[in-house]
Design brief:
The chain is an all-alpha fold. The chain has one domain. Helices cover 74% and strands 0% of the residues. The longest helix has 28 residues.
């Protein structure tokens, strides 16, 4: 598989998987009792990992263009809104959860950007034609 095909495949996969992933994160944050997973893993790590994945998918889906910043800020706003809504579902909103969301979203976008830069072909030598 060539680099261009790999980038195209990753972009399409990220685009189609982004919305189901957002739905799972929304469900996980608004469920009154998400289950035993919070007892096994630190809550802030769950927030970081979830938004790291979303940030990476946003970056790859948008091919690392300038719109990525708006997408990541949108994820941060989504996380903040969900934290406020948690207070209405019987869970405790936490500012540190939102900090983990923001840190995860920006870190994931950075990782996605780095992945795209590694996969893009580079011109190592410029050829002058007379």
């Amino acid at each position: 598989m060539t680099r261009d095909k790999l980038i195209r495949w990753a972009t399409v996969a990220a685009l189609y998987l982004l919305w189901p992933a957002i739905a799972v994160v929304v469900w996980g944050e608004l469920t009154p009792s998400p289950g035993q997973i919070e007892m096994l893993v630190w809550d802030k790590a769950l927030h970081f990992i979830a938004y790291f994945g979303l940030g990476g998918m946003v970056c790859v889906a948008l091919k690392g263009e300038r719109r990525v910043l708006m997408g990541v800020v949108g994820l941060a706003v989504l996380g903040g809104v969900l934290e406020v809504l948690q207070g209405f579902t019987g869970r405790d909103p936490d500012i540190y959860d939102e900090a983990a969301n923001i840190l995860g979203a920006f870190s994931g976008a950075g990782a996605g950007w780095l992945l795209l830069r590694v996969l893009r072909p580079k011109i190592l030598v410029a050829v002058k034609r007379d």
